[in-house]
Amino acid sequence: MDQALLTFHNLLTEEMYVLYTSDHCYKCVPQHLVDVKPNNNNESAVVSTKFALTIRLQSLNRNTTICRWSQTYEEGGQYSVWIQMSEAPSDVSCFQTVDEASHNANLPLLAATLLLAIIALLFVLVPYIYRRRCTSGFIRTICCQGSQSSADNDGAADCETANSPSEAKPTRLLSLDAFRGFSLTVMVFVNYGGGGYWFFQHAPWNGLTVADLVMPWFVFIIGTSVVLAFRSMQRRGVSRWQLLRKITWRTIVLLMLGFCFLNYSPRDGPLSWSWLRIPGVLQRLGFTYFVLSLLQTFWGQKEIPSRAHHWWNPLQDVFLYWPQWLIIVLLETVWLCVTLLMPVPNCPTGYLGAGGIGDNGLYPECTGGAAGHVDKWMFGDNMFRYPTCKEMYQTTQPFDPEGFLGTINSVVMGFLGMQAGKIIICYKGRNLHILSRFLVWAIILGISAAILSKCTRDGGFIPVNKNLWSLSYVLCMGCFSFLLLGAMYFVIDIQSWWGGQPFIYPGMNSIFVYVGHSLLGFYFPFSWEMRFQASHWEWLFQSLWGTALWVLIASFLYRKKFFLKI
């Protein structure tokens, strides 16, 4: 899977050696692929099909590049490269033929997408047909006439209930639960392998894939939920001391869950400090929640002075919370100063690369720059040993994507979510204002991210990088979060075109689903030992099956009104 076979046929009288680099690997040192002996000999090599490759053929005698080309090979394909003399004297030509056509690696994904689209359409059509049944006089005459059976009576009662004008609409923002559930569902799917597709896995270093989107969305919703929940508790008269106890308890539980459970499984054998990872996803979420909650507890407005006339009324969602903004600006200043100005031994100041063979191999031990150095000083080797850059950049240093400096920007990401909550509160009842401000924030954040990254993957001032949780990454994810939350708010809470199903179910039991799939997700019936590992079909089916099971479990718990809260 994700591989192709490349056979080199050398018709020359001198030996050739083949080098390759991945076009996704920034300024990487060419790597040896295979040597091809002269006089009609051939050698084969397996190459990756995830990204485009640049192939170079060099002569051992002349030490010069004979041929060079860049191509994205197709999964399962078999190719031949013929090296021979051209018609012009002393010139060498290389041409490529296809020995065996590749299979369509995206076919399982297309089939799964079609199936999910049909299921989603049913989720929309069934409630619509039901509503038509309740509102159409003709259908009601046929389906709901008389009292021939208890089922008809129940149906008539349902019709009356559905059209009762006195039925109160729920005050809970369903779009928040749907957004949280959507993020969590994609996260579970990605953690199950995403069908083996590279774009459902984290980017090797800079850049974005689907897997890089979900955790910032989750952090964003934490910030929004903190504002709405704490305002409700403060209006109910919950004291600051009670809030602090709740914050502290929930943070401790999240940290302990992440540290004691998600770092360990029975497959790992006895607990050992030598491999125990100190940072982690729940640890970061717990710390982020703690900081955001403190900001809202001490500097959150209990009431919005809507009747007062001030020059800053159009921006009251910002100016009313200026102490919070001051603290966030200070935190981001710390991140920028440490990341870009702190000297790191044997590394250039402000280095943001992956190290290894990247950057022409000049800084092999500098993975993550200041972020990696700070984490190594704080945690030693108790960090993630298989960072996403390890395979492509051939790094040797451990690097943790949930490290200390990245957690600072996680707080900033959550604060952008808090800003969304403040907009909802400050402009309550004025949906057009809420949606327009979401759009304005998305535009501002998107333009800022584009400037910092120069709209490139590797060439910007601060590249978009999930491993580092760089500032441009946070701004980019903030842009996407405002757009997605605004769209869900419009569709679910304003127009009521969609109730958020099925994402609302895991969204209201997020801790249970996340911890459950982390502890039990690699046991039957959620997963099994695959027999056809060379194909995406079984891997994608397993990923979708495991994800669907957790959504069904969350749906069952929702109907039983069981919600795991900390």
The helix/strand order is: EEEEEEEEHHHHHHHHHHHHHHHHH
Average pLDDT across residues? Answer: 84
**What amount of the residues lies in strands?**
5-15%
Helix content: 40-55%
Head-to-tail CA distance between termini: 42 Å
Number of strands: 8
Give the quaternary arrangement of the chains. single chain
Overall domain count: 3
Class computed from helices, strands and strand pairing = alpha+beta
| Main pleated-sheet profile | 4 strands, mixed
Question: Which overall shape is indicated by the principal axes computed on the Cα atoms?
Answer: globular
Give the low-confidence spans: 138-170
Output the radius of gyration: 28 Å
How many helices? The count is 17
Strand order of the largest sheet: 4-1-7-8
Question: What descriptors fit this protein?
Answer:
four-stranded mixed sheet, Immunoglobulin-like, alpha+beta
